[in-house]
Amino acid sequence: MSTSIPYLDEHWSVVGGCSKCSPGCDHCWAEAVTRQRLAPQFPERYADLVGPDGWTGAVRCFEERLGQPARWRRPRVVGVGFMGDLFHEQVPDAFISQVFGAMEIHAQHTYLTLTKRHYTCGVLLDNYVLPHRLLALRMPHVWIGFTCCNQSEVDSLSCLLNSEPLWRHVFPHVWLSLEPLLEPVVLPAALLQRGGWVVAGSEAGAGRRSVGVDPFYALMRQCRDAHVPFYLKQWEVGNRVESIPVPKWAETPWGGQ
Ligand code: SF4
């Protein structure tokens, strides 16, 4: 699936549907796209995932898409399951293993996973890397992503990263999506000290909660001091949301935008 997310070449839509678990979910982009575009176009796949009040709580795993990375010829930067949450409690562990198995095999691409369910993700990744054959394996082409909207979520992520989880031996790269950012945050030392990548953005769309521009300057300074790439996706100035407002703050670990 093509994508409007500027730092991705491709969106690998392996799951659909979700349920809200954070203040950052209030104006869920995936929910809006599913309701307005995907459900009317592909009712057999998406219609039961959303209703007039938003997500129904149903989640669907698209097994037929597991082979897509094999068909992309040139290496791509791929967002994994951004139309839901791969680590949602209704996604079977076996399916998550299949997704990681496909990423293991098709290592020519760079994959970005992303979840709001930090703890579940940590447990499942530990289970994934536990089998002995994987302990010698490293998958630096898979960036494990966590999304947070406020300091309390960042702090819970810090606890996870501070515990030096087993999975980091296999997945050394972690990225953090602070979108929508709802308040100023101090980034986790465990992320800054070991490299990583930070993406941030204000909330966009109707009913958006403005945070101003100062928290983004503060994030940029924290990243600069730690030599961590920083990507500012959008912020709100006055009443207007500006996309990639500062081109030199659109950094990616692999160069380019
Ligand atoms: S976790 Fe992500 S996809 Fe799920 S409701 Fe929240 S913002 Fe939407």
Describe the structure.
The mean pLDDT is 94. The protein contains nine helices and twelve strands. The longest helix has 13 residues. Helix content is 31%, strand content 18%. The protein has one domain. The strands form three sheets. An eight-stranded mixed beta sheet has the order 1-6-7-8-9-10-11-12. Strands 2-5 form a two-stranded antiparallel sheet. It is α/β, with parallel strands linked by helices and 257 residues long. Bound molecules: iron/sulfur cluster (SF4). The site of iron/sulfur cluster has 10 residues, from helix 1.
Brief summary:
This protein has 257 residues and is α/β, with parallel strands linked by helices.
Largest sheet: 8 strands, mixed
State the share of residues found in helices, binned by percent.
25-40%
Distance between the termini: 19 Å
How much of the sequence lies in strands comes to 15-25%
Keywords:
single chain; 257 residues; alpha/beta; eight-stranded mixed beta sheet; two-stranded antiparallel ribbon; 9 helices; 18% strand; binds iron/sulfur cluster
List the helices and strands and how they pair.
Layout: E1 10-12, E2 15-16, H1 29-41, H2 43-46, E3 50-51, E4 54-55, E5 60-61, H3 68-71, E6 77-80, H4 93-105, E7 110-113, H5 118-129, H6 132-135, E8 142-147, H7 151-162, E9 174-178, H8 189-192, E10 197-201, H9 214-226, E11 230-237, E12 240-243
